[in-house]
Design brief:
Blueprint lengths: L2 H11 L5 E5 L15 E4 L2 E5 L5 E4 L7 E9 L6 H9 L9 E11 L2 E6 L8 E3 L4 E3 L2 H8 L5 H8 L1 H4 L17 E2 L4 E4 L4 E4 L11 H19 L5 E4 L4 H12 L5 E5 L4 H14 L3 E4 L8 H13 L9 H8 L5 E4 L3 H5 L14 H10 L8 H17 L11 H25 L2 E3 L4 H8 L8 H11 L1 H5 L1
Parallel strand pairs: 13-14, 13-16, 14-15, 16-17
Antiparallel strand pairs: 1-3, 1-9, 2-3, 4-5, 5-6, 6-7, 7-11, 8-9, 8-10, 11-12
Helix pairs in contact: 1-9, 6-15, 7-16, 9-10, 9-14, 10-14, 12-13
Length: about 475
Protein backbone atom coordinates (compact mmCIF):
# COMPACT_ATOMS: atom_id res chain seq x y z
CA UNK A 1 0.00 0.00 0.00
CA UNK A 2 1.50 3.42 -0.95
CA UNK A 3 2.26 5.42 2.17
CA UNK A 4 0.19 8.46 1.19
CA UNK A 5 -2.78 6.41 -0.02
CA UNK A 6 -2.63 4.18 3.02
CA UNK A 7 -2.59 7.19 5.35
CA UNK A 8 -5.56 8.73 3.54
CA UNK A 9 -7.58 5.52 3.83
CA UNK A 10 -6.76 5.19 7.51
CA UNK A 11 -7.58 8.84 8.22
CA UNK A 12 -11.01 8.37 6.63
CA UNK A 13 -12.00 5.54 8.99
CA UNK A 14 -10.12 6.40 12.20
CA UNK A 15 -12.67 6.86 15.01
CA UNK A 16 -15.43 6.70 12.43
CA UNK A 17 -18.78 7.99 13.70
CA UNK A 18 -16.93 9.42 16.70
CA UNK A 19 -16.57 12.80 18.37
CA UNK A 20 -14.29 14.89 20.55
CA UNK A 21 -15.30 17.63 23.00
CA UNK A 22 -12.67 20.06 24.31
CA UNK A 23 -12.56 23.28 26.31
CA UNK A 24 -12.14 26.22 23.92
CA UNK A 25 -8.75 26.99 25.49
CA UNK A 26 -7.39 23.47 24.94
CA UNK A 27 -4.50 22.98 22.53
CA UNK A 28 -4.32 19.29 21.62
CA UNK A 29 -1.82 17.63 19.32
CA UNK A 30 -2.54 18.34 15.65
CA UNK A 31 -3.94 15.14 14.14
CA UNK A 32 -4.33 14.79 10.37
CA UNK A 33 -7.62 12.90 10.55
CA UNK A 34 -9.30 15.67 12.56
CA UNK A 35 -8.78 18.10 9.68
CA UNK A 36 -11.85 16.66 7.91
CA UNK A 37 -14.04 16.63 11.03
CA UNK A 38 -16.47 19.58 11.16
CA UNK A 39 -15.94 21.83 14.18
CA UNK A 40 -18.80 23.28 16.22
CA UNK A 41 -18.51 25.98 18.90
CA UNK A 42 -20.76 26.10 21.93
CA UNK A 43 -19.74 28.78 24.41
CA UNK A 44 -16.69 27.58 26.33
CA UNK A 45 -16.59 24.30 24.41
CA UNK A 46 -15.75 23.08 20.96
CA UNK A 47 -16.91 19.88 19.34
CA UNK A 48 -15.19 17.93 16.57
CA UNK A 49 -17.47 15.31 15.01
CA UNK A 50 -16.59 12.73 12.37
CA UNK A 51 -18.37 13.55 9.08
CA UNK A 52 -20.65 10.50 9.55
CA UNK A 53 -21.64 11.41 13.12
CA UNK A 54 -25.15 12.88 13.35
CA UNK A 55 -25.14 16.15 15.31
CA UNK A 56 -28.52 17.44 16.47
CA UNK A 57 -28.68 20.70 18.42
CA UNK A 58 -31.73 21.57 20.50
CA UNK A 59 -31.85 25.25 21.36
CA UNK A 60 -29.32 26.29 18.72
CA UNK A 61 -28.33 29.91 19.18
CA UNK A 62 -29.17 29.91 22.88
CA UNK A 63 -26.63 30.11 25.67
CA UNK A 64 -27.62 26.65 26.94
CA UNK A 65 -28.06 24.28 23.99
CA UNK A 66 -28.40 20.51 24.21
CA UNK A 67 -26.25 18.62 21.71
CA UNK A 68 -27.19 15.07 20.70
CA UNK A 69 -24.46 13.03 19.03
CA UNK A 70 -25.32 9.82 17.19
CA UNK A 71 -28.50 7.81 16.59
CA UNK A 72 -31.35 8.58 18.99
CA UNK A 73 -35.09 7.95 19.07
CA UNK A 74 -37.96 8.25 21.54
CA UNK A 75 -38.62 4.66 22.57
CA UNK A 76 -41.40 5.25 25.11
CA UNK A 77 -44.10 7.83 25.68
CA UNK A 78 -45.39 10.62 23.46
CA UNK A 79 -42.87 13.43 24.06
CA UNK A 80 -40.81 14.64 21.12
CA UNK A 81 -37.03 14.38 21.12
CA UNK A 82 -36.80 18.15 21.53
CA UNK A 83 -39.11 18.06 24.56
CA UNK A 84 -37.08 15.28 26.16
CA UNK A 85 -33.83 17.20 25.57
CA UNK A 86 -35.23 20.42 27.04
CA UNK A 87 -36.56 18.64 30.13
CA UNK A 88 -33.16 17.01 30.64
CA UNK A 89 -31.45 20.40 30.30
CA UNK A 90 -33.69 21.71 33.09
CA UNK A 91 -32.75 18.87 35.44
CA UNK A 92 -35.45 16.25 34.81
CA UNK A 93 -33.33 13.09 34.70
CA UNK A 94 -36.31 10.72 34.68
CA UNK A 95 -37.11 11.74 31.10
CA UNK A 96 -33.98 9.91 29.92
CA UNK A 97 -35.99 6.69 30.36
CA UNK A 98 -37.84 7.65 27.17
CA UNK A 99 -34.76 7.56 24.92
CA UNK A 100 -32.84 4.82 23.17
CA UNK A 101 -30.39 4.39 20.29
CA UNK A 102 -26.65 4.89 20.29
CA UNK A 103 -25.94 8.43 21.38
CA UNK A 104 -24.33 10.90 23.75
CA UNK A 105 -26.32 13.81 25.16
CA UNK A 106 -24.54 17.02 26.18
CA UNK A 107 -26.23 19.80 28.15
CA UNK A 108 -24.10 22.94 27.81
CA UNK A 109 -24.55 25.64 30.43
CA UNK A 110 -22.03 28.43 29.89
CA UNK A 111 -18.70 27.10 31.09
CA UNK A 112 -20.34 23.89 32.34
CA UNK A 113 -21.17 20.73 30.43
CA UNK A 114 -23.13 17.68 31.58
CA UNK A 115 -22.94 14.41 29.66
CA UNK A 116 -24.94 11.19 29.59
CA UNK A 117 -25.36 8.43 27.01
CA UNK A 118 -27.89 5.87 25.81
CA UNK A 119 -29.12 3.36 28.40
CA UNK A 120 -26.66 0.51 27.90
CA UNK A 121 -23.76 2.75 26.89
CA UNK A 122 -23.70 1.45 23.30
CA UNK A 123 -22.19 4.83 22.46
CA UNK A 124 -18.97 4.71 24.41
CA UNK A 125 -17.94 7.95 26.09
CA UNK A 126 -14.51 8.45 27.65
CA UNK A 127 -13.16 11.36 29.62
CA UNK A 128 -9.87 12.81 30.80
CA UNK A 129 -10.00 14.52 34.17
CA UNK A 130 -6.72 16.31 33.63
CA UNK A 131 -7.70 17.80 30.28
CA UNK A 132 -11.43 18.20 30.98
CA UNK A 133 -12.21 16.59 27.64
CA UNK A 134 -14.42 13.75 26.47
CA UNK A 135 -14.51 11.60 23.35
CA UNK A 136 -16.13 8.58 21.78
CA UNK A 137 -12.90 6.53 21.99
CA UNK A 138 -10.19 6.20 24.64
CA UNK A 139 -7.32 6.24 22.15
CA UNK A 140 -8.69 9.37 20.49
CA UNK A 141 -8.22 11.25 23.76
CA UNK A 142 -4.81 9.67 24.25
CA UNK A 143 -3.65 10.72 20.79
CA UNK A 144 -4.97 14.26 21.25
CA UNK A 145 -2.95 14.79 24.40
CA UNK A 146 0.01 12.49 23.81
CA UNK A 147 -0.87 10.25 26.74
CA UNK A 148 1.33 7.20 27.38
CA UNK A 149 -0.06 3.74 27.99
CA UNK A 150 -0.67 2.74 31.57
CA UNK A 151 2.05 0.51 32.98
CA UNK A 152 -0.36 -1.09 35.45
CA UNK A 153 -3.00 -1.92 32.82
CA UNK A 154 -0.38 -3.13 30.34
CA UNK A 155 0.98 -5.43 33.02
CA UNK A 156 -2.52 -6.65 33.91
CA UNK A 157 -3.32 -7.49 30.28
CA UNK A 158 -0.19 -9.64 30.18
CA UNK A 159 -1.07 -11.58 33.35
CA UNK A 160 -2.08 -15.23 32.84
CA UNK A 161 -5.26 -14.68 34.89
CA UNK A 162 -6.43 -12.00 32.43
CA UNK A 163 -5.45 -14.06 29.40
CA UNK A 164 -7.37 -17.04 30.77
CA UNK A 165 -10.64 -15.09 30.78
CA UNK A 166 -13.07 -16.25 28.09
CA UNK A 167 -14.45 -12.74 27.67
CA UNK A 168 -11.69 -10.20 28.13
CA UNK A 169 -12.13 -6.57 29.10
CA UNK A 170 -10.45 -4.29 31.59
CA UNK A 171 -11.74 -4.01 35.17
CA UNK A 172 -13.94 -1.16 36.30
CA UNK A 173 -13.91 1.92 34.10
CA UNK A 174 -10.22 1.62 33.31
CA UNK A 175 -8.63 1.99 29.88
CA UNK A 176 -5.11 1.48 28.63
CA UNK A 177 -4.36 5.10 29.68
CA UNK A 178 -4.18 6.26 33.29
CA UNK A 179 -5.84 9.61 32.57
CA UNK A 180 -8.68 8.24 30.43
CA UNK A 181 -11.68 6.45 31.90
CA UNK A 182 -15.04 5.19 30.70
CA UNK A 183 -18.15 7.19 31.50
CA UNK A 184 -20.51 4.72 33.18
CA UNK A 185 -24.16 4.30 32.08
CA UNK A 186 -26.77 5.72 34.49
CA UNK A 187 -24.14 8.15 35.79
CA UNK A 188 -23.96 11.78 34.69
CA UNK A 189 -20.56 13.42 34.18
CA UNK A 190 -19.95 17.10 34.93
CA UNK A 191 -17.08 17.66 32.53
CA UNK A 192 -15.81 20.95 33.92
CA UNK A 193 -15.27 19.42 37.39
CA UNK A 194 -14.92 15.71 36.61
CA UNK A 195 -17.60 14.88 39.18
CA UNK A 196 -20.10 12.08 38.58
CA UNK A 197 -23.46 11.31 40.13
CA UNK A 198 -25.96 8.50 39.67
CA UNK A 199 -29.37 9.41 38.21
CA UNK A 200 -30.89 5.93 37.70
CA UNK A 201 -32.64 4.24 39.37
CA UNK A 202 -34.29 7.42 40.66
CA UNK A 203 -37.13 5.60 42.45
CA UNK A 204 -38.14 2.13 43.56
CA UNK A 205 -39.00 -0.09 40.62
CA UNK A 206 -42.74 -0.78 40.39
CA UNK A 207 -44.04 -4.31 40.66
CA UNK A 208 -44.89 -5.60 37.19
CA UNK A 209 -46.71 -8.45 35.49
CA UNK A 210 -45.86 -10.41 32.37
CA UNK A 211 -48.44 -8.30 30.57
CA UNK A 212 -46.44 -5.20 31.55
CA UNK A 213 -43.30 -6.77 30.09
CA UNK A 214 -45.09 -7.58 26.82
CA UNK A 215 -46.47 -4.04 26.63
CA UNK A 216 -43.07 -2.40 27.23
CA UNK A 217 -41.43 -4.80 24.75
CA UNK A 218 -43.96 -4.03 22.01
CA UNK A 219 -43.83 -0.26 22.54
CA UNK A 220 -40.05 -0.25 22.44
CA UNK A 221 -39.79 -2.31 19.25
CA UNK A 222 -42.64 -0.45 17.54
CA UNK A 223 -40.63 2.76 17.90
CA UNK A 224 -37.29 1.07 17.19
CA UNK A 225 -38.63 -0.44 13.95
CA UNK A 226 -39.81 3.00 12.85
CA UNK A 227 -36.37 4.43 13.61
CA UNK A 228 -34.53 1.63 11.82
CA UNK A 229 -36.72 1.99 8.74
CA UNK A 230 -35.05 5.33 8.11
CA UNK A 231 -31.67 3.62 7.58
CA UNK A 232 -30.44 2.47 4.19
CA UNK A 233 -30.39 -1.17 5.30
CA UNK A 234 -30.78 -3.11 8.54
CA UNK A 235 -28.64 -6.15 9.34
CA UNK A 236 -29.47 -8.39 12.30
CA UNK A 237 -26.93 -10.58 14.02
CA UNK A 238 -28.45 -14.04 13.65
CA UNK A 239 -27.57 -16.47 16.44
CA UNK A 240 -29.41 -19.35 18.02
CA UNK A 241 -29.88 -17.44 21.26
CA UNK A 242 -33.14 -16.05 22.59
CA UNK A 243 -31.97 -12.42 22.39
CA UNK A 244 -31.35 -12.59 18.64
CA UNK A 245 -34.52 -14.54 17.89
CA UNK A 246 -36.62 -12.28 20.10
CA UNK A 247 -35.52 -9.16 18.23
CA UNK A 248 -35.93 -10.74 14.81
CA UNK A 249 -39.42 -12.03 15.61
CA UNK A 250 -40.76 -8.70 16.80
CA UNK A 251 -39.03 -6.55 14.15
CA UNK A 252 -40.29 -8.82 11.34
CA UNK A 253 -43.80 -8.53 12.78
CA UNK A 254 -43.47 -4.75 12.43
CA UNK A 255 -42.73 -5.10 8.71
CA UNK A 256 -39.06 -4.15 8.89
CA UNK A 257 -36.95 -5.40 5.98
CA UNK A 258 -33.72 -7.04 7.18
CA UNK A 259 -30.85 -9.21 6.13
CA UNK A 260 -28.87 -11.44 8.49
CA UNK A 261 -25.26 -12.23 9.37
CA UNK A 262 -23.72 -14.93 11.57
CA UNK A 263 -20.09 -15.55 12.48
CA UNK A 264 -18.07 -18.72 12.70
CA UNK A 265 -17.03 -18.33 16.35
CA UNK A 266 -20.54 -19.19 17.53
CA UNK A 267 -21.06 -22.17 19.84
CA UNK A 268 -22.14 -25.40 18.14
CA UNK A 269 -25.35 -25.41 20.18
CA UNK A 270 -26.36 -22.14 18.50
CA UNK A 271 -24.78 -22.51 15.06
CA UNK A 272 -26.62 -25.80 14.46
CA UNK A 273 -29.92 -23.90 14.47
CA UNK A 274 -28.94 -21.27 11.92
CA UNK A 275 -29.78 -23.12 8.69
CA UNK A 276 -33.33 -23.89 9.83
CA UNK A 277 -33.84 -20.29 10.95
CA UNK A 278 -32.56 -18.92 7.63
CA UNK A 279 -34.93 -21.24 5.74
CA UNK A 280 -37.86 -20.00 7.83
CA UNK A 281 -36.93 -16.31 7.71
CA UNK A 282 -36.28 -16.35 3.99
CA UNK A 283 -34.03 -13.30 3.96
CA UNK A 284 -30.50 -12.82 2.68
CA UNK A 285 -27.94 -14.39 5.02
CA UNK A 286 -24.17 -14.70 5.07
CA UNK A 287 -21.65 -16.36 7.33
CA UNK A 288 -18.62 -14.31 8.41
CA UNK A 289 -15.36 -16.07 9.16
CA UNK A 290 -13.68 -13.59 11.48
CA UNK A 291 -10.52 -15.70 11.37
CA UNK A 292 -10.08 -14.70 7.73
CA UNK A 293 -8.13 -11.52 7.00
CA UNK A 294 -9.27 -9.23 4.20
CA UNK A 295 -5.94 -8.45 2.57
CA UNK A 296 -6.80 -5.30 0.67
CA UNK A 297 -5.70 -1.72 1.25
CA UNK A 298 -9.13 -0.87 2.64
CA UNK A 299 -9.24 -4.04 4.74
CA UNK A 300 -5.92 -3.26 6.39
CA UNK A 301 -7.00 0.32 7.13
CA UNK A 302 -10.27 -0.87 8.69
CA UNK A 303 -8.46 -3.47 10.80
CA UNK A 304 -6.00 -0.90 12.17
CA UNK A 305 -8.85 1.52 12.84
CA UNK A 306 -10.63 -1.27 14.73
CA UNK A 307 -7.60 -1.78 16.98
CA UNK A 308 -7.65 1.88 17.92
CA UNK A 309 -11.43 2.00 18.30
CA UNK A 310 -11.09 -0.62 21.05
CA UNK A 311 -8.30 1.28 22.76
CA UNK A 312 -5.90 -1.55 21.86
CA UNK A 313 -7.69 -3.93 24.26
CA UNK A 314 -9.28 -6.37 21.76
CA UNK A 315 -6.34 -7.61 19.72
CA UNK A 316 -6.50 -7.09 15.95
CA UNK A 317 -10.18 -7.26 15.00
CA UNK A 318 -11.14 -8.34 11.48
CA UNK A 319 -14.86 -7.58 11.94
CA UNK A 320 -14.73 -3.95 10.65
CA UNK A 321 -13.38 -5.11 7.29
CA UNK A 322 -15.92 -7.93 7.07
CA UNK A 323 -18.77 -5.61 8.10
CA UNK A 324 -17.83 -3.02 5.47
CA UNK A 325 -17.44 -5.68 2.79
CA UNK A 326 -21.17 -6.11 2.19
CA UNK A 327 -22.75 -3.06 3.81
CA UNK A 328 -24.36 -0.04 2.21
CA UNK A 329 -23.73 3.54 3.38
CA UNK A 330 -26.31 4.51 5.95
CA UNK A 331 -26.92 0.95 7.08
CA UNK A 332 -26.93 -0.32 10.65
CA UNK A 333 -26.08 -3.67 12.25
CA UNK A 334 -28.10 -4.69 15.32
CA UNK A 335 -26.61 -6.88 18.08
CA UNK A 336 -28.77 -8.70 20.61
CA UNK A 337 -26.99 -6.92 23.47
CA UNK A 338 -29.27 -5.98 26.33
CA UNK A 339 -31.11 -9.27 26.62
CA UNK A 340 -28.62 -10.32 29.26
CA UNK A 341 -29.49 -7.23 31.30
CA UNK A 342 -33.12 -8.34 31.47
CA UNK A 343 -31.97 -11.77 32.66
CA UNK A 344 -30.04 -10.36 35.63
CA UNK A 345 -27.27 -12.98 35.82
CA UNK A 346 -25.33 -11.08 38.52
CA UNK A 347 -28.26 -10.69 40.91
CA UNK A 348 -28.58 -12.45 44.23
CA UNK A 349 -31.78 -14.01 42.95
CA UNK A 350 -29.73 -15.72 40.20
CA UNK A 351 -26.61 -16.40 42.32
CA UNK A 352 -27.40 -16.45 46.04
CA UNK A 353 -23.75 -17.13 46.93
CA UNK A 354 -22.47 -13.78 45.61
CA UNK A 355 -21.09 -11.22 48.07
CA UNK A 356 -23.49 -8.47 49.11
CA UNK A 357 -20.95 -5.63 48.86
CA UNK A 358 -20.78 -4.11 45.32
CA UNK A 359 -16.98 -3.88 45.41
CA UNK A 360 -16.50 -7.49 46.48
CA UNK A 361 -19.12 -8.71 44.05
CA UNK A 362 -17.55 -6.82 41.12
CA UNK A 363 -14.10 -8.24 41.88
CA UNK A 364 -15.51 -11.74 42.39
CA UNK A 365 -17.41 -11.74 39.10
CA UNK A 366 -14.68 -10.15 37.01
CA UNK A 367 -11.97 -12.53 38.20
CA UNK A 368 -14.14 -15.58 37.53
CA UNK A 369 -12.64 -19.00 38.29
CA UNK A 370 -9.16 -17.44 38.47
CA UNK A 371 -10.08 -15.65 41.72
CA UNK A 372 -9.15 -18.72 43.78
CA UNK A 373 -5.60 -18.95 42.48
CA UNK A 374 -4.96 -15.38 41.30
CA UNK A 375 -1.62 -13.80 42.13
CA UNK A 376 -1.44 -10.95 44.65
CA UNK A 377 -0.53 -8.59 41.78
CA UNK A 378 -3.67 -9.51 39.83
CA UNK A 379 -5.88 -9.17 42.89
CA UNK A 380 -4.35 -5.80 43.80
CA UNK A 381 -4.81 -4.40 40.29
CA UNK A 382 -8.46 -5.45 40.21
CA UNK A 383 -9.17 -4.14 43.72
CA UNK A 384 -7.76 -0.71 42.85
CA UNK A 385 -9.72 -0.52 39.59
CA UNK A 386 -13.00 -1.55 41.19
CA UNK A 387 -12.59 0.76 44.18
CA UNK A 388 -12.43 3.66 41.72
CA UNK A 389 -15.29 2.23 39.64
CA UNK A 390 -17.65 1.80 42.60
CA UNK A 391 -16.90 5.37 43.71
CA UNK A 392 -17.41 6.93 40.27
CA UNK A 393 -20.48 4.78 39.58
CA UNK A 394 -21.89 6.20 42.83
CA UNK A 395 -22.91 2.83 44.27
CA UNK A 396 -23.07 4.55 47.63
CA UNK A 397 -26.13 6.48 46.44
CA UNK A 398 -29.66 5.32 47.15
CA UNK A 399 -30.25 2.43 44.73
CA UNK A 400 -33.93 2.33 45.76
CA UNK A 401 -33.84 -1.35 46.56
CA UNK A 402 -32.34 -2.44 43.23
CA UNK A 403 -29.89 -5.33 43.57
CA UNK A 404 -26.43 -3.90 42.74
CA UNK A 405 -25.68 -7.07 40.79
CA UNK A 406 -28.33 -6.11 38.24
CA UNK A 407 -26.51 -2.84 37.72
CA UNK A 408 -23.03 -4.41 37.68
CA UNK A 409 -23.83 -6.66 34.72
CA UNK A 410 -25.25 -3.67 32.83
CA UNK A 411 -22.80 -0.94 33.84
CA UNK A 412 -19.61 -2.97 33.88
CA UNK A 413 -19.81 -5.97 31.57
CA UNK A 414 -22.11 -4.43 28.93
CA UNK A 415 -20.54 -0.98 29.07
CA UNK A 416 -17.09 -2.52 28.58
CA UNK A 417 -17.22 -5.72 26.55
CA UNK A 418 -20.44 -5.21 24.56
CA UNK A 419 -19.98 -1.51 23.88
CA UNK A 420 -16.40 -1.95 22.70
CA UNK A 421 -17.63 -4.69 20.36
CA UNK A 422 -20.11 -2.16 18.97
CA UNK A 423 -17.41 0.53 18.71
CA UNK A 424 -15.19 -1.83 16.72
CA UNK A 425 -18.02 -2.96 14.43
CA UNK A 426 -19.01 0.67 13.79
CA UNK A 427 -15.70 1.31 12.06
CA UNK A 428 -16.96 -0.91 9.21
CA UNK A 429 -20.72 -0.44 9.61
CA UNK A 430 -22.73 1.49 12.17
CA UNK A 431 -23.93 -0.82 14.96
CA UNK A 432 -26.48 -0.75 17.80
CA UNK A 433 -27.38 -2.69 20.93
CA UNK A 434 -30.85 -3.90 20.05
CA UNK A 435 -32.45 -4.32 23.51
CA UNK A 436 -31.61 -0.93 24.97
CA UNK A 437 -34.27 0.54 27.25
CA UNK A 438 -34.34 1.38 30.95
CA UNK A 439 -38.12 1.01 31.02
CA UNK A 440 -37.88 -2.43 29.47
CA UNK A 441 -35.20 -3.54 31.94
CA UNK A 442 -37.29 -2.25 34.84
CA UNK A 443 -40.34 -4.14 33.58
CA UNK A 444 -38.41 -7.42 33.63
CA UNK A 445 -36.87 -6.71 37.02
CA UNK A 446 -40.21 -5.79 38.57
CA UNK A 447 -41.73 -9.25 38.22
CA UNK A 448 -42.46 -10.89 41.55
CA UNK A 449 -41.44 -14.33 40.31
CA UNK A 450 -38.15 -14.85 38.49
CA UNK A 451 -38.03 -12.24 35.76
CA UNK A 452 -34.81 -13.76 34.61
CA UNK A 453 -36.04 -17.02 33.16
CA UNK A 454 -35.36 -17.76 29.51
CA UNK A 455 -38.94 -19.03 29.33
CA UNK A 456 -40.21 -15.44 29.33
CA UNK A 457 -38.03 -14.61 26.32
CA UNK A 458 -39.29 -17.77 24.64
CA UNK A 459 -42.86 -16.60 25.23
CA UNK A 460 -42.02 -13.24 23.69
CA UNK A 461 -40.62 -14.92 20.58
CA UNK A 462 -43.66 -17.20 20.29
CA UNK A 463 -46.03 -14.24 20.56
CA UNK A 464 -44.62 -12.82 17.31
CA UNK A 465 -43.33 -15.92 15.49
CA UNK A 466 -44.26 -19.36 16.90
CA UNK A 467 -42.21 -21.17 14.25
CA UNK A 468 -39.03 -19.26 15.10
CA UNK A 469 -39.66 -19.90 18.79
CA UNK A 470 -39.71 -23.64 18.17
CA UNK A 471 -36.41 -23.76 16.24
Amino acid sequence: MPDDEGKRMLDDVLYRRGFLVLPAWSRPVELSYLASWPEHRFGAWRLHAHPETPVHVVGAGSDDPVVILGDVFVAHGTATLEEVAERYAHGDMSVLEDLSGKFALLAIEGSGLRAVQDPIGAQTVFTSDRHRALASHASLLAECFGLPRSRSMTDLMAMPEQKAKTTRFLPGDRTLYDDVRLVIPNVELELSTGRTHRYWPHASLPATTREDVFEAWDEYFENYAAHLSGHEEVVLGLTGGVDSRGMIAVLRSKGLAMRYESWASMKEEESSRISAMVEHLGGEHRWIDIRRWIETDEGRALTEAGRRAAGYTRGTPTMPAHAADASRPGGVFVYGHGGGVTAGPYSLRAKKFLPQDPLDRARYLHAGPQRKTASPAYQAANRQAFQEFVERADYGADLHGVDPGLLLYWEHRMANWASLQIAVHSIGMNAHAGINSRRLYAAFWGLSSSAHEKTLHAELIAAYDPVLAAL
